[in-house]
Amino acid sequence: MLIPVRQAVERADSVGGRLVDLTSREPRGRDQVCPWDLVVTIGQEPEDRAAAAWIIADEIMQARTDLDTVGYALWRDAALAGRKLTDVDREHVLSHAAPVFEANDPTGVTGYIGEWLWYLSTRDLAPEPGRSVEILDPPSSTVTDSGPDGLIIHRVEGSALGFVFRLWEMKKFTGTAAKPSDTIRGAWQQLNANGARYLGQVSWGGKFLAPDTRVFVSSLVRQWVTAEESGSGGVSLALNVEDTPETAFDRSHKHFTTHTHVGALQGLVVAVDDLENFAKDVREYVWSAL
Fold first, then answer.
1. Residue 103 and residue 275: Cα distance in Å, rounded?
2. Cα(184)–Cα(17) distance, rounded to whole angstroms?
3. In this predicted model, what pLDDT tens digit does every residue of 97-134 receive, in sequence order?
4. What pTM does this model have?
5. How far apart are CA 16 and CA 10, in angstroms?
6. In this predicted structure, what is the pLDDT of residue 148?
7. Pairing, β 131-136 against β 150-156
8. Contact call for residues 23 and 121 (beta carbons, < 8 A)
C-alpha cells in the first residue's frame, strides 16, 4: 500500500529533499574506454521508497507545469491535502499530467521515470573543479519524443571552445528479455547512428543564452558530425537491483565508433528495487490529486 503523500514528504524533507540524498554512487570500470557509475537508489524501506517516489513526482510536475505556477500549486496543495481536484481545476492540472500518466502505460511510464532518474542523479552532482553545468534540461514532456533523451553542456575553464557537451541515450531493462549488455549495446548503436539527428531536433529559440553559449550551441551538430573532442556520448540504463551487472560498458567502444577521443564515452546504471512498481508509485503520487 502506498504511503500517504504527507508522510512521504516528511521523509523526503528529513533527508534533504533531493533524490541524491537517497542514493549511493560508485565509480566502476575506470580502466575501460567507457567508464561508468553505478547509482543504487531507493532501498526496501517503505518510507525511503515513498520519499524517492514523491521527490520524482514533485519534480516532474514542477517541470511539466513550468511557468504555470497556478497549475503546480493546484496540484501540490491537493496532493498534500489528500483530496481530488474537480471541474476546471482538475481539467487545468490534467492538461499537464495526462500526456504521460493518463494512459497508465507501464512500459512508457517506466521509461519516462528512467529518464528522470538519470536527470536528477546528474543535476544534483557536486560540481567538478574547473567546470560548471551551463545547460541541462529536464526530460521531454512526452514518452514518444524522437529527439535526444538527455543533453548536458558544461562550461570548462581553459578548453578550446569554452564548453563541452555530452549527448545521452536512456534505456530501461526490466529483466523480461535478453540481458542488460544487449540493451546497452543497442543504445550505443542508436546513438552512433542518430546522434546528429537528435542534436538537429533540439530547439534553442526560446532560451536566453549568453553570447558565447549561443555560439557554441549553434555548432553542436557540426561538432558531432566532425567528431570534435568537445562532443561526447553517454548511455544510461535504469534497471532492477537484482539485475545489476558486475561489469558493464566494456565493449561500448565497439558500438559507438563516431567519437574516439579520451573521455568520449560514459555509462551510468541506475538500480532501483522493483523498477516497474516504483514507476507506478510515482504515477500514483502524480495522480493522487486527479
1. 18
2. 31
3. 999 998 877 788 999 999 999 999 999 999 899 999 99
4. 0.95
5. 10
6. 80
7. antiparallel
8. yes
Q: Output the DSSP codes for the chain.
A: -PPPHHHHHHHHHHHTSSGGGGEEEEEE-TTSSS-EEEEEE--S-HHHHHHHHHHHHHHHHHHHHTT-HHHHHHHHHHHHHT----HHHHHHHHHHHHHHHTT--HHHHHHHHHHHHHHHHHHTSPPPTTEEEEEEPPPPSSSS--S-SEEEEEEETT-SSSEEEEEEEEEEE-SSSS-HHHHHHHHHHHHHHHHHHHHHT---TT----HHHHHHHTTHHHHHHTT-TTEEEEEEEEEEGGG--SS-STTHHHH--S--STT-EEEEEEEETTHHHHHHHHHHHHHTT-
**Among 190, 181, 285, which Cα is nearest to 233's?**
190
Residue range 174-190, pLDDT digits in tens:
987 789 999 999 999 99
Q: What is the residue type of 75?
A: W
What pLDDT is recorded for position 80?
A: 97
pLDDT for position 143: 64
Q: Which residues of the chain have pLDDT under 50?
A: none
Q: d(Cα 89, Cα 71) in Å, to the nearest integer?
A: 8
Closest C-alpha to 271, from 87, 47, 38? 38
- As given in the structure block, the three cell numbers for residue 172 are 530501461
CA distance 275 to 253: 28
Dihedrals phi, psi of 10, to nearest 5 degrees: -60, -45
What is the C-alpha separation between 290 and 287, in angstroms, rounded?
A: 5
**Cβ 242 vs Cβ 210: under 8 Å:** no
